[in-house]
Amino acid sequence: MTRALDGREKTADRLLKSSANKFYDPEVDIDWSAPLPDGSLYQLEHRCSLYGTHLWDRLTPEQRIELGKHELASIASNGIFFEVLLMQLLLKEVYNSDPTTRHVQYALTEIADECRHSTMFARFVERTGAEAYGPVPIVHRLGKLLPFIGYGPALYGSILVAEEVLDRLQRETMADERVQPLVRMVNRIHVLEEARHVTFAREEVTRGMAKLSKTELYYQRWLIAAVSFGTVRSLINPRVYKAVGLRPREAWETALANPHFQETIRWAGERIMGFLQESGLVGAPGMSLWHKSFLLAK
Ligand SMILES: [Fe+2]
Ligand SMILES: [Fe+2]
What we know:
CATH topology: Ribonucleotide Reductase, subunit A
Bound molecules: fe (ii) ion
Number of helices: 13
CATH architecture: Orthogonal Bundle
Helix content: 55-70%
Structural class: mainly alpha
Radius of gyration: 19 Å
């Protein structure tokens, strides 16, 4: 007997079909032995955390490319950190739900996507020869709590912040010939596959918000602000600056005070923040964290 599909099941069904039609295997679809041409960028210069500062002015063109490489290695290895957390959260959902639903089957498919992405990011960092910086130790420790304290629309909303911020940064480089072909290919694969995840999570936010009590709403607003703050602050691990002979603490403080860097974060989060504001997830008691994160201008 075929069951009539409700809205949630319909979306999952459509996403399952789309996943079957279009997915990449980075092992096969990327030529990992292709050379990394000298002089090609890893990150667009105006997206580097120090762009426009007095420290940036002191760097040679080669050092600027080198810093871009290390910043991207930091972002990619943090991408693995976020995806590993997301996989745990999705597995929790699978553990607690009926596997004969399309919803759970799509959750399993998304885990498979993220598994391939994390392998791809790991391989990318390995290929560049930079370190897999990941988050700073305190964020790494706090991340372990998330599968226990996180639930509901804030959880899916936080996932969206990580996915959509990365998405906007990656999209910008995809068609830019100044950027390394390997970086563009990795980004293209990620952007294409993430579009489905964004649809899935956005609908979960909307459905989850409709069910919240007033007390839960406060907790959810705090949770998403705290996780999103941790997420965007983690993208650049201050140790990257050592690669170009800068002192991590001084360079990181300079980056945090850099209006270009603040604007990059705001711009990268612009689309998802619009959605979260409309959904009602942005509000007290999370506002100071949103402003501190630079996702919302003061
Ligand atoms: Fe991903
Ligand atoms: Fe994703």
